[in-house]
Design a protein that fits this description.
By secondary structure, the protein is α+β, with helices and mostly antiparallel strands. Helices cover 39% and strands 39% of the residues. Residues 16-140 form the SnoaL-like domain.
């Protein structure tokens, strides 16, 4: 392989990595506006058909359960009362056709006293490249309320990270 061919192959690999990271970021950041607008099918479509969404109080598997969560009376009450999910930018690690990402999310709700942060969570996404693009295989959320499980979830994304514990 000539020097030019090697450089071109390297550039193609770097471009693919950037495109993958952009697509994954777009997927992750799509969740909040889709769930806050009640677009149940589009929310479910962010996951693989049998994908998992593991939240502290609920465990969902598959498009039917994900869609059902968005359509539920509890979630519809959040929407009609005024709520905003906000996701921070993800830190993505690619490994071929699989990836992981961690980020924070906030759920902000409208109250009589104004907007209030209802919960702040640590998020870990496990993603796969599919024929239709990147999809979530599993998303795990844990409330950042002082339990060890939440920062452990974030640290698990960084293999070399060692958490200091008092």
């Amino acid at each position: 392989m000539s020097d030019l061919e090697q450089r071109l192959a390297s550039m193609e690999a770097r471009l693919r990595r950037l495109e993958d990271e952009q697509e994954i970021t777009k997927l992750i950041l799509s969740y909040a506006p889709l769930v806050d607008s009640g677009c149940d099918q589009q929310v479910a479509g962010l996951w693989e058909e049998d994908g998992v969404y593991d939240v502290d109080e609920i465990f969902m598997r598959g498009h039917g359960q994900l869609s059902g969560m968005v359509r539920s009376s509890a979630h519809q009450a959040w929407i009609s009362g005024g709520c905003a999910h906000f996701a921070g930018p993800p830190h993505i690690t690619l490994d071929g056709d699989e990836a992981t990402a961690v980020c924070y999310t906030l759920m902000i709700v409208n109250t009589p006293d104004g907007f209030t942060v209802r919960r702040a969570t640590a998020n870990r996404w496990e993603l796969r490249r599919t024929p239709s693009g990147w999809r979530a295989a599993r998303r795990t959320n844990r409330v950042l309320d002082g339990r060890e499980e939440s920062p452990d979830l974030l640290a698990s994304h960084f293999p070399e990270a060692v958490r200091h514990r008092p």
